Amino acid sequence: MDGLEDLYRELRPYAFAIAYRMLGSVSEAEDVVQDAFVRLHRATPDEVVSPKAYLATVTTRLAIDALRSARARRESYVGPWLPEPLLTDPAAGPADAAVAADSLSMAFLVVLETLSPVERAVFLLHDVFGYDFAEVASIVGKSEPNCRQLAGRARRHVEARRPRFDVSREQRAELAERFFAAAADGDMDGLVSLLAGDAAFYGDGGEKGSGVRAPILGRDNVVRFLLGMFRRGQALGITMRPVEINGDPGAMFFDADGGLISLISLEIAGGKIQTARGFVNPDKIAHLGALSPIGRRKTDWT
After folding, report:
1. How many helices (H) and strands (E) does the chain have?
2. Is pLDDT of 102 > 60?
3. Where is average pLDDT lowest: 11-15, 43-47, 73-77, 218-222?
């Protein structure tokens, strides 16, 4: 197909947006997008009325297959499984920021994991990407009435668990700044004042990273864990850089040589930090930069 390089530059972000929301994995989404473009390149003109529509269809179908395969691996995952973090632009305009907060947040992606692959595809295509049900039915190979049922069931499930952004983006960033400052200063009272009573910490280390093997539940337990973790980090000369992760405030942590150790993202609700999520599994953060040996199994960084 002529102009494939131009199409790749133009449509790759769109195909990736579908694949990442379907899979919750940067690396798996990249593989799906590459495969979709290979198929676009090999397709005949009769098969491709619209390159964008063709890519959306192929990307979705490949992602459904990949998600079915990934389900078995995730069931045997060591410790909590979290989606791979994606850095978002804190300087993005209000419209782009709203999209990120609404359909890219870690809390939202975690909820999507509870849907079946086809439910997830139908819901995302219709509610997030704006396809009508006739188009969705053609993409997923189901009847239009069936797609309406799948979308309705998925929507009720998602809405019941969807994160509520009841403070502004600026307020969330300010709350995160206070949170990380309190943790770095060993300010127990400060952390207690910022965390919800039923706060939780989830650490995704998998087999290779030194993440916690089970969720840490309750404000007091989370505070003790965070203070211990930051105290050990300071002893190792670890530095922190504020970032925005999937539309949520967070931070990246680096060793003295600039190697990436881990990330933490914060979910805020009711003006309090509800959930902190730590990412240490090297397979999930390698796309964000050169990695540090700290944070891997059998080290003193948890």
Report:
1. 12, 7
2. yes
3. 43-47
CB 176 within 8 A of CB 250: yes
Q: How far is CA 32 from CA 18, 19, 59, 72, 101, in A?
A: 10, 7, 6, 18, 24
Q: What's the distance, Cα to Cα, between the start and end of the chain in Å?
A: 50
Within 10 angstroms of residue 164's Cβ, the number of other Cβ atoms is 10
List Cβ neighbours of 106 (8 Å cut-off, separation of 6 or more): 82, 83, 85, 245, 246, 248, 265, 267, 277
Mind listing the pLDDT tens digit for each residue in 205-215? 988 988 788 99
Q: Is 237 left (phi over 0), alpha (psi -120 to 50) or beta?
A: left
Tokens at residue 165, please? 């952004």
* CA dihedral over 292, 296, 300, 302, signed as positive or negative: positive
How high is the pLDDT of residue 173?
92
* Residue 272, strand partner residues: 269
CA 199/CA 223 separation, integer angstroms: 9
Residues contacting residue 5 through CB under 8 Å, at least 6 positions apart: none
Count of CB atoms situated within 10 Å of the CB of 264: 27
Residues sharing a CB contact under 8 Å with residue 10, sequence separation 6 or more, in sequence order: none
Beta-carbon contacts of residue 172 (< 8 Å; ≥ 6 apart): 165, 248, 249, 266, 268
Closest of 132, 1, 115 to residue 64, by C-alpha: 115
Q: Output the six-digit token pair for 77.
A: 């995952």
Q: Angle, to 10 degrees, between the axis of helix 133-140 and the axis of helix 51-75?
A: 60
The rounded distance, in Å, linking the Cα atoms of 113 and 22 is: 9
Residues 6+ apart with CB under 8 A from 116: none
Angle at CA of residue 160, ends 157 and 162, nearest 5°? 100
